[in-house]
Amino acid sequence: MTLHLGGNRLRTLPGAALRLTCLQHLDLSRNALTSLPASISSLAALRCLDVSHNRLESLPDALSSLVVLQHLCLADNPLDTLGDVLGALTGLTHLDV
Q1: What is the DSSP letter of 30?
Q2: Number of H helices, E strands in the chain
Q3: pLDDT tier for residue 86 given thresholds of 50, 70 and 90
């Protein structure tokens, strides 16, 4: 299952999206997100997450629980640090910063 929410000027991730536990691809690019909720960990089937072109300054530790995540797009965000999150994403094959 794929959900495209790019280019909608979202400031927060809609709660309904976090209930889509079969979601494999989530496009949140080109919005106004400043953070991702810890509850993103509920998207355990997520293989691709695009949060490029937002206002993210950090990544939640909960992102590290997405063990099947393969593609992570973080480009064009004012990230201060990537923290320890990336080290836990052992299935990651594509990282765009």
Answers
A1: S
A2: 1, 5
A3: confident
CA 8/CA 93 separation, integer angstroms = 28
Q: Residue 23 and residue 44: Cα distance in Å, rounded?
A: 8
Q: Retrieve residue 58's tokens.
A: 């950090």
CA-wise closest residue to 79 among 48, 51, 58, 52: 58
Q: Are 18 and 41 in contact (CB under 8 A)?
A: no
pTM of the model: 0.95
HSE (side-chain half, CA atoms, 13 Å) at 1: 12
